[in-house]
Structure formats: structure tokens, C-alpha cells
Amino acid sequence: MWTRTSFGTCSTSGSDTSPSSPIPATPSSSGRSCTRDRGSRQRRGDEPAGAARRAPTGGRRRVQHARRGCPRAGRVIGRGGDRLRARGLRGPRRPRPRDVGLARRERRRARRLRRVHAAPHVLVPGAFPGPCGERPSRTAARLSRCPPARGLARRRRLRGRGHRALRGRRNRHGPRDRERGGARPGRRHRRDAARARPRCRASPSPGSRRAAVRALISVYDKNGLVPFARGLADLGFELVASGGTATTLRDAGIGVVRVEELTGFPEMLGGRVKTLHPRVHAGILARRGRGDDLAQLAEQGIEPFELVCVNLYPFELVADRVGMADDDVVEMIDVGGPSMLRAAAKNFASVTPVCRSGDYGDVLAELRERKGQTSLETRRRLAGIAFAASAAYEAAIARWFQRDDELPETLVPAFDKVLELAYGENPHQRAGYYAERGPRRHLLSRVEQLAGKPLSFNNVNDLSAARLLVRELEEPACVIVKHANPCGVGVAETIEDAYAKAIAADPVSAYGGVVVFNRAVTAALGEALSGQFIEVLYAPGYDEQAMEALAGKASVRILNDIERRAPGGTERDYKRVLGGLLVQERDSNPPDVARMEVVCGQVSDDQWRDLLFAWRVVKHVSSNAVVLGWRGQTIGIGAGQMSRVDAVRIAVDKARELGHDLEGAVLASDAFFPFPDGPQIALEAGVTAIIQPGGSKRDAEVTEAVSEAGAAMVFTHRRHFRH
């Protein structure tokens, strides 16, 4: 009879007939070998303790250590006064760092040499780590394991050895090793959470802490800022603002974090450097769907922005002021604002960019409706607006630097939509009216529509042609345009007489035309206009009685011009061609009488007035163009003809049809006469003076024909083609 004690399993056994109390005996060599083999298999879990080794003998209870030295909950061990109730906590599978201290007493009572790492006594419960906020004893399920921290080469060396135990380095195991030592979901159960790893740092649960929703605001134009910011704050946004924006919000009682508090740096270089900082731009540009982006934010302690509201310095407003020094204009070149706006627009998948005060209401409404979020469609639309605003801003700066170069190498005009038109020249064409950024005024700047239907594409086109012409006439004038060509023009001492001349010039063509005045519409003129079918009526003011007279013309588009600013610098003319743009200076110079040359005959003062009047008008008629004038009135217009002689015939024929007396009339041609045939038709009809550019190879022949007819002719040495 002998009893064998194995250190590896701390078990003591004997035969069924031997005494129940464990009596130490000197082990034999053969027994030690057998026990070591069985103990190692039991430690690995390959061989459970046999039933015979667990069964009670002779009514007595034996002590049996199975794998771990911790009895089951509620199991009674020992006999008599030695009976103890086992603890219900389950011990560790192998010795842990704190077990050594608890096992020393058992080691001192050992009757023979044991191994270095002794297991705890069977009656001593296993040690558990003390409480720790970062390392819970049991991590909640469904939390991610520690992220890999080893390099690729290290992972390749460990590939295929994930089943081995962690040994030899004690507490120097890295996160990747500890993860390898923990349990993992099986291949068929990848959706199940991994088993918790005691004593590892608990990963934060997704959604367990909701990050603050932040908005970055930096605006020059404070219009609508306070209600917008207050609405964001009510929705739970944390507001971050720069400089004057933060001051405005704090004065309104709205909590805000200043940019310098966020970045840790004050404004520098007189305000030139405010928001150019990684804590600002990383928070804007971080991609929410990229784990590496979010990890870098977390590493640097940066929180992302969900909304960015920026509008830019008013560069164009300052650059257009008369007498502004270059240094003052340069300081209006915004750098940080476009950077933040473009960053937010680039990251529209996660960030809402706002750059117009007119969008504040819509954005707030959607945020309230969608519980603090905007749709991807809205963010994409706002991103397009932001990039367009940035591009137009840069174009304005480029134009200012290129202001002395009429035809720069790269032309970057920018246009803003002013009107959404019902259709284009034809109903199947979409259309809109855009105003160019840069010029001080445009066709509809400071223009009020007092009555009538919305403007159409053709209305706007005809209005432009009429306004370009009427601004060249200093006397009270009226211009009537159809299909972008004047059909009746009159100047007189009163605006009423000017209209009478214009409508009488070609009453048939004036039907349904665009009528433009350079003087206010009086009561008498309003009464006269009420009897005429007009598409558009344009004037710099209307008498109250005139509006009453026009009240019955509900369809007439009545436009009131309150623009008093002088035109800006030289404008460019654009003509769209296939795949490109034709660009030229606008032909807006007044007649240069000093350059004009009387080549034959004598020109009276009355003739000079009529010649200059007809010359101003013909410049605005489609080529080939011929205008007949008499005493401040057009009496015949030949427009858009491929042959100049045909243009003369049309002008003469229309004047005769309408009953105009051609005796003493004048003729203006937008280009030279290549042959004498055109002037001869007009001279035979009664024309006594002709004005034309000259420059033909047969100028001598044309001059001789005019001289022989006893008429006068003036060369302007300037052509006025219009196509």
C-alpha cells in the first residue's frame, strides 16, 4: 500500500482497501513516472479523473484534485471538524501572478521537494485581481478584442502557432499575444461575440458614448447668423467659432468655443492665421467610414465636425470701390475661409457645408426633421454651391490681378443665376438669366417688376438690345425692339414726342415689342401706352396716374429702373461657338466726330444731328444694316441682309410703305459700300446725306456717284458690324 502525490495535479490516491487518510510514503521511481504521464494528460484535459479515483471508500470521503485545485460549489470536503464548504468561485486554469504568495504556506509544509511553481492548496481559493476601472475581471460580451499591435513580419512568424499556450515571458506578452491566447469565435459562428478576456483592457462599446455633435462657424456676413446658431445649439450642436463670429454669438447669449481655445494658438499675423490648424481641418476632413482616419483622430484627441458654416470676405465689394489702395484690397483676399469651405465640401459624405445665409432656414428645418442630420442629397447639393462660391471668389481675385489685360491667357468669368426662365428661344429649350460677377451693374440690376407676367428668354434678349441703344441717346428717347433689332427709334424734346416718333416709325413691327424709355413715364404717356400691345415696358420711374392707366394691361411686364450707378469699366462681349467662346471688347465707344471726314458735299447742322442719330442706331442693327433717319426719327431700317444693296432696298421700301417722306432724309450704313449701286437707290429716293465707314477699293467710285447727285457723304473710318 502506498500513496502517490503529484505536484502537477496535487492529487493523493490509494487502493479501495487502504486507509482513507493520506499517509505520505516514499515514492518509487516507477510510480513517479506513471504519475507524471497521467498528470500531464490531465492538465491538458486529455484524460479526466477516473470514476474509481473520485468514488468514496468505506463511507469516507477522499480528496481528489481534478485539473484545477478548486472544488465545485457546495461540495463538502474532509470529515468531522475539518468539513469545509467550498467556495463557489471557479479558480484559474493555471497559476497566475498573484497565486505565488497564496501558495507559500503549502510549499513550507511540503514533505519532499517540489517544482518551482507550486499550485495552490486545494482548500485555498484562487486569487482574483483587485478592482480596476480599466481592466474588469470579466469583459462584457460583444466587445472588440485588443487591436493588433505587432508588425506584419511578427504576425507571419506566429502564423500557424495560435493554438500554443503563452509561456516564458510572464507579464511581457503583447496585445497581439494576449489576443491569441484568448478564445475566438469558431469559423461557423463568426457573428457571435468573442469570449471575454479577463484582465485585458476593456474596449469601449460602440454607441456606449455618443460623441458631441459639432458645428464650425466662421462668417464675415453676420446676417441671419444668430437665429441659425441658436437653432443649432437647440439641436445639441457644440458650436466652435472664430474671432468676430464667436464674439457675436456670445453677445447673443449663445455658448461657443473659440477656435483659439480649440487649437491652443491665438490669432496670428493680424488675423491672417486663425483656422489653419490640424485640429480644425482634420476634424472637417476625417472620413467617418475609415477606421484609420477615426483612429488618428482619437490618437490626437480631435473630434470631428458635422457642419461647417463659412462665408467669405467681400473682396468684390471692396475691389469695386473707387480709390481703394492695393494693400487694402489684398487684405480682403480670404485664405482660411475658402480652405474650410472646400474641405467641408470635399467631405460632403459626412459634413454639411453651408456658405449662403439664404440656406440657413432650409438646413435647420431638415436638421430638425431628421433629428440632427442632413441627407446625402442635401449635402451633395450644398457642396456644389460651396465649390461654385469658392470658384467665383477665386475668379474675382484673378480678374482683379488681370484688370489691365483685356484678353488674359486664362479667362475665368463667373456668373450667378438671376432668373429661372420658363423656356429659351423656343418652348423645348430650358433657359435662365445669369449675371456676370465683377461688373458693377447688369441688365436687371436694381430693376423692379411692378406688374405683368414673368420675363421670357426673348424678352430679356430684346430688353438688352434696347437698353444698349437707349443709353447712347442723351435727349429724351424711346426705343422699340423686336427680335433684338430696333424697329422704331425717336428722340425729341419731350418723352411723349419721342414715343410718338418711335411708334410711328414702324407701327406694324412695334406690335408686341419691347419699349424702353430714358425718362420717366408721365400720365399722358401712360395713357398713350395703354392703347398699344406691349410685351415689356421699361423706364426709370412711373407717374402714379400712368400706373393707373396701365392697370388694365395685366400682361404687360412693367419694369422700373432704379439703377443710378454709372457703368463700370470696359465690358467683354461673349459669343458661344462650338467648343469655345469668342471674346471681344464691347463696341460701346460714342461717335468720334473728330475722326470723321466729309468726303463730298456740304453738311448742315440739321444733317449732322440726323447723321449722328442714324449712326448711333445702325450700330445696334444686325449686319448688313442700313438706317434711314429724318429729324430724330428712324423711318426705314434694313437689317440682317447678306447683301448691302438689299438692305438699302428694304429700308427704302418700308419707308415708302409707311408713308414717310424721304426727301431730305439721311442714310447710315454699318460698313462700307463696295459698289455705287446701294447709294444710288437711296439718292434716287430723296436721301441727301450718307454716313459710312469707308475703306472700299471703290470708294472713289462711290464718292463720285454721291457727289454727282448733289449729296454729301461722311467717312467715319470705323465700322459697326453686329452679328
Tag the structure with descriptive keywords.
disordered N terminus, 723 residues, Rossmann fold, 6-stranded mixed sheet, alpha/beta, 25 strands
- CATH architecture label name of the largest domain: 3-Layer(aba) Sandwich
Name the CATH class of the largest domain.
Alpha Beta
Q: How many domains comprise the coordinates? A: 4
- What fraction, in percent, of the residue positions are helical? 25-40%
Number of strands: 25
How do the strands line up in the largest sheet? 12-17-16-15-13-14
Report the major sheet: 6 strands, mixed
Counting DSSP H or I runs of 4 or more residues, the number of helices is: 24
> Do you know the CATH topology of the largest domain?
Rossmann fold
Give the radius of gyration: 48 Å
> Which superfamily, in CATH terms, is the homologous superfamily of the largest domain?
Methylglyoxal synthase-like domain
Taken from the alpha-carbon principal axes, the silhouette is elongated
